[in-house]
Amino acid sequence: GENVEQHPSTLSVQEGDSAVIKCTYSDSASNYFPWYKQELGKRPQLIIDIRSNVGEKKDQRIAVTLNKTAKHFSLHITETQPEDSAVYFCAASNSDYKLSFGAGTTVTVRA
Amino acid sequence: DADVTQTPRNRITKTGKRIMLECSQTKGHDRMYWYRQDPGLGLRLIYYSFDVKDINKGEISDGYSVSRQAQAKFSLSLESAIPNQTALYFCATRDSTNNEQFFGPGTRLTVL
Predict the structure, then answer these.
(1) Residue A14 class from Cβ within 10 Å (0-12 exposed, 13-18 middle, 19+ buried)?
(2) Which chain B residue has the Cα nearest residue A6?
(3) Which of A59, A103, B68, B90 is the most exposed place for a label (fewest CB within 10 A)?
(4) Distances from the Cα of A79 to the Cα of A8, A17, A57, B92, angstroms
(5) Cα-based angle A87, A92, A97 (whole degrees, multiple of 5)
(6) Nearest CB to B90 within list A34, A43, A103
(7) What is the pLDDT along chain A (111 residues), one digit of tens a residue?
Protein backbone atom coordinates (compact mmCIF):
# COMPACT_ATOMS: atom_id res chain seq x y z
CA GLY A 1 0.00 0.00 0.00
CA GLU A 2 0.86 3.68 -0.08
CA ASN A 3 3.24 5.09 2.55
CA VAL A 4 3.37 8.85 3.09
CA GLU A 5 6.09 10.47 5.18
CA GLN A 6 5.84 14.07 6.33
CA HIS A 7 8.50 16.45 7.68
CA PRO A 8 8.99 18.28 9.92
CA SER A 9 6.70 17.14 12.71
CA THR A 10 6.76 20.61 14.29
CA LEU A 11 7.52 23.99 12.76
CA SER A 12 7.74 27.37 14.48
CA VAL A 13 7.93 30.50 12.34
CA GLN A 14 7.90 34.22 12.94
CA GLU A 15 4.78 36.00 11.72
CA GLY A 16 5.36 37.18 8.18
CA ASP A 17 7.93 34.50 7.37
CA SER A 18 7.32 31.49 5.11
CA ALA A 19 6.61 27.91 6.16
CA VAL A 20 7.42 24.81 4.10
CA ILE A 21 6.21 21.27 4.79
CA LYS A 22 7.50 18.33 2.75
CA CYS A 23 6.00 14.92 2.05
CA THR A 24 7.20 11.85 0.19
CA TYR A 25 5.09 8.98 -1.11
CA SER A 26 5.90 5.43 -2.16
CA ASP A 27 3.29 4.42 -4.76
CA SER A 28 4.16 5.76 -8.21
CA ALA A 29 0.50 5.24 -9.22
CA SER A 30 -0.68 7.93 -6.79
CA ASN A 31 -2.25 10.80 -8.70
CA TYR A 32 -4.05 13.02 -6.18
CA PHE A 33 -2.34 14.94 -3.37
CA PRO A 34 -4.48 17.01 -0.99
CA TRP A 35 -3.42 19.07 2.01
CA TYR A 36 -5.61 19.43 5.09
CA LYS A 37 -5.51 21.96 7.90
CA GLN A 38 -6.79 20.96 11.34
CA GLU A 39 -7.28 23.65 13.94
CA LEU A 40 -7.39 22.68 17.59
CA GLY A 41 -10.56 20.71 18.36
CA LYS A 42 -11.82 20.94 14.79
CA ARG A 43 -12.15 18.61 11.83
CA PRO A 44 -9.51 18.47 9.06
CA GLN A 45 -10.38 20.87 6.25
CA LEU A 46 -9.08 20.70 2.68
CA ILE A 47 -6.98 23.79 1.89
CA ILE A 48 -5.42 22.90 -1.45
CA ASP A 49 -4.85 19.88 -3.65
CA ILE A 50 -2.79 18.98 -6.70
CA ARG A 51 -3.16 16.29 -9.31
CA SER A 52 -0.36 14.44 -11.06
CA ASN A 53 -0.80 16.27 -14.35
CA VAL A 54 0.47 19.60 -12.91
CA GLY A 55 3.65 20.59 -11.09
CA GLU A 56 2.48 23.58 -9.07
CA LYS A 57 -0.72 25.17 -7.85
CA LYS A 58 -1.25 28.42 -5.95
CA ASP A 59 -4.14 29.87 -3.98
CA GLN A 60 -3.39 33.26 -2.45
CA ARG A 61 -0.72 32.68 0.24
CA ILE A 62 -0.51 28.91 -0.14
CA ALA A 63 1.08 26.87 -2.89
CA VAL A 64 1.80 23.22 -3.48
CA THR A 65 4.51 21.72 -5.69
CA LEU A 66 4.75 18.16 -6.96
CA ASN A 67 7.80 16.27 -8.23
CA LYS A 68 6.53 12.98 -9.63
CA THR A 69 9.99 11.71 -10.51
CA ALA A 70 11.24 12.09 -6.96
CA LYS A 71 7.82 11.23 -5.49
CA HIS A 72 7.61 14.21 -3.23
CA PHE A 73 5.33 17.21 -2.81
CA SER A 74 5.48 20.29 -0.63
CA LEU A 75 3.21 22.92 0.90
CA HIS A 76 4.39 26.51 1.00
CA ILE A 77 2.71 29.18 3.13
CA THR A 78 3.94 32.73 2.58
CA GLU A 79 3.48 35.78 4.82
CA THR A 80 2.35 33.59 7.71
CA GLN A 81 -0.27 34.92 10.11
CA PRO A 82 -1.35 33.74 13.59
CA GLU A 83 -4.44 32.08 12.10
CA ASP A 84 -2.13 29.78 10.11
CA SER A 85 -1.24 28.03 13.39
CA ALA A 86 -2.66 24.50 13.10
CA VAL A 87 -1.77 20.91 12.28
CA TYR A 88 -1.28 20.29 8.56
CA PHE A 89 -1.63 16.87 6.94
CA CYS A 90 -0.52 15.80 3.51
CA ALA A 91 -2.12 12.81 1.79
CA ALA A 92 -1.80 10.75 -1.37
CA SER A 93 -4.30 8.69 -3.31
CA ASN A 94 -4.34 6.55 -6.41
CA SER A 95 -7.33 5.27 -8.32
CA ASP A 96 -8.45 3.06 -5.43
CA TYR A 97 -9.96 6.17 -3.81
CA LYS A 98 -8.23 5.68 -0.48
CA LEU A 99 -6.26 8.52 1.03
CA SER A 100 -3.05 7.72 2.89
CA PHE A 101 -2.09 10.50 5.31
CA GLY A 102 1.20 11.76 6.63
CA ALA A 103 1.66 11.99 10.40
CA GLY A 104 1.05 15.75 10.45
CA THR A 105 3.03 18.94 11.06
CA THR A 106 2.19 21.26 13.95
CA VAL A 107 2.79 24.81 12.75
CA THR A 108 3.08 27.62 15.29
CA VAL A 109 3.24 31.21 14.07
CA ARG A 110 4.93 33.49 16.62
CA ALA A 111 3.60 37.04 16.82
CA ASP B 1 -25.32 23.53 3.71
CA ALA B 2 -24.67 19.88 2.94
CA ASP B 3 -22.62 18.38 5.74
CA VAL B 4 -21.21 15.32 7.48
CA THR B 5 -22.37 14.79 11.07
CA GLN B 6 -21.33 12.36 13.79
CA THR B 7 -22.95 11.14 17.00
CA PRO B 8 -22.04 11.06 19.78
CA ARG B 9 -19.36 13.77 19.88
CA ASN B 10 -17.86 12.45 23.09
CA ARG B 11 -18.16 9.05 24.76
CA ILE B 12 -16.60 7.47 27.79
CA THR B 13 -17.04 3.73 28.18
CA LYS B 14 -15.54 0.75 29.97
CA THR B 15 -13.46 -2.13 28.70
CA GLY B 16 -15.60 -4.88 27.18
CA LYS B 17 -18.58 -2.70 26.31
CA ARG B 18 -20.09 -2.58 22.83
CA ILE B 19 -20.04 0.87 21.28
CA MET B 20 -21.57 2.25 18.08
CA LEU B 21 -20.54 5.51 16.45
CA GLU B 22 -22.92 6.98 13.89
CA CYS B 23 -22.18 9.03 10.80
CA SER B 24 -24.71 10.77 8.56
CA GLN B 25 -24.21 12.93 5.49
CA THR B 26 -26.35 15.16 3.32
CA LYS B 27 -23.72 15.61 0.60
CA GLY B 28 -25.09 12.83 -1.57
CA HIS B 29 -21.69 11.14 -1.83
CA ASP B 30 -21.47 7.37 -2.38
CA ARG B 31 -18.03 6.95 -0.79
CA MET B 32 -17.74 6.99 3.00
CA TYR B 33 -14.79 6.33 5.33
CA TRP B 34 -13.95 5.84 9.00
CA TYR B 35 -10.58 7.00 10.36
CA ARG B 36 -9.00 7.13 13.77
CA GLN B 37 -6.60 9.87 14.79
CA ASP B 38 -3.89 9.40 17.40
CA PRO B 39 -1.24 11.99 18.31
CA GLY B 40 1.79 11.68 16.03
CA LEU B 41 0.18 9.01 13.83
CA GLY B 42 -2.01 11.08 11.55
CA LEU B 43 -5.28 9.64 10.28
CA ARG B 44 -5.46 5.90 9.76
CA LEU B 45 -8.18 4.23 7.72
CA ILE B 46 -10.37 1.69 9.53
CA TYR B 47 -13.07 0.82 6.96
CA TYR B 48 -14.54 2.31 3.81
CA SER B 49 -17.61 1.86 1.65
CA PHE B 50 -18.32 2.79 -1.95
CA ASP B 51 -22.04 2.04 -1.90
CA VAL B 52 -24.85 0.61 0.19
CA LYS B 53 -23.88 -2.84 1.51
CA ASP B 54 -20.31 -2.43 0.14
CA ILE B 55 -17.71 -2.83 2.92
CA ASN B 56 -13.90 -2.78 2.63
CA LYS B 57 -11.21 -3.11 5.27
CA GLY B 58 -8.69 -0.37 5.80
CA GLU B 59 -5.25 -0.62 7.37
CA ILE B 60 -6.45 -1.04 10.99
CA SER B 61 -9.80 -2.89 10.86
CA ASP B 62 -9.13 -5.44 13.65
CA GLY B 63 -11.51 -4.91 16.57
CA TYR B 64 -13.95 -2.84 14.51
CA SER B 65 -16.96 -3.51 12.27
CA VAL B 66 -19.12 -1.27 10.11
CA SER B 67 -22.55 -1.16 8.56
CA ARG B 68 -23.75 0.75 5.49
CA GLN B 69 -27.51 0.26 5.30
CA ALA B 70 -28.24 3.52 3.48
CA GLN B 71 -26.30 5.90 1.26
CA ALA B 72 -26.41 8.62 3.90
CA LYS B 73 -25.38 6.53 6.91
CA PHE B 74 -22.23 4.64 7.85
CA SER B 75 -21.86 3.31 11.39
CA LEU B 76 -18.76 2.04 13.18
CA SER B 77 -18.97 -0.53 15.97
CA LEU B 78 -16.52 -1.68 18.59
CA GLU B 79 -17.81 -5.08 19.68
CA SER B 80 -15.73 -5.22 22.86
CA ALA B 81 -13.93 -1.96 23.53
CA ILE B 82 -10.36 -1.96 24.85
CA PRO B 83 -8.29 0.95 26.23
CA ASN B 84 -6.01 1.22 23.16
CA GLN B 85 -9.09 2.10 21.11
CA THR B 86 -9.16 5.42 22.94
CA ALA B 87 -8.83 7.93 20.11
CA LEU B 88 -10.52 10.58 18.01
CA TYR B 89 -12.68 9.02 15.30
CA PHE B 90 -13.57 10.78 12.07
CA CYS B 91 -16.10 9.88 9.43
CA ALA B 92 -15.57 11.24 5.92
CA THR B 93 -17.26 11.30 2.55
CA ARG B 94 -15.65 11.66 -0.85
CA ASP B 95 -16.88 13.41 -3.97
CA SER B 96 -16.41 10.97 -6.86
CA THR B 97 -16.30 13.80 -9.42
CA ASN B 98 -13.16 15.51 -8.07
CA ASN B 99 -11.89 13.25 -5.23
CA GLU B 100 -12.36 15.92 -2.57
CA GLN B 101 -12.87 14.40 0.86
CA PHE B 102 -14.96 15.99 3.62
CA PHE B 103 -14.70 15.13 7.30
CA GLY B 104 -17.27 15.03 10.05
CA PRO B 105 -16.64 16.86 13.35
CA GLY B 106 -15.19 13.80 15.06
CA THR B 107 -16.08 11.59 18.04
CA ARG B 108 -13.75 11.52 21.02
CA LEU B 109 -13.88 8.02 22.51
CA THR B 110 -12.33 7.10 25.84
CA VAL B 111 -12.19 3.47 26.93
CA LEU B 112 -11.40 3.02 30.62
Answers:
(1) exposed
(2) B42
(3) A59
(4) 19, 5, 17, 31
(5) 120
(6) A43
(7) 789 999 999 999 999 999 999 999 999 999 999 999 999 999 999 999 999 888 999 999 999 999 999 999 999 999 999 999 999 999 999 877 789 999 999 999 999
